[in-house]
Amino acid sequence: MGEHGRSLLQQINPDIAFISCNSWSLNKGVTAPTEDKALIKASFAQKADRIILVADSSKYNCYSLFTAIPLNRFTDIITDNHLDTENLQLLQAQLFALHIAN
Question: Which parts of the chain have pLDDT scores under 50?
Answer without folding.
Answer: none
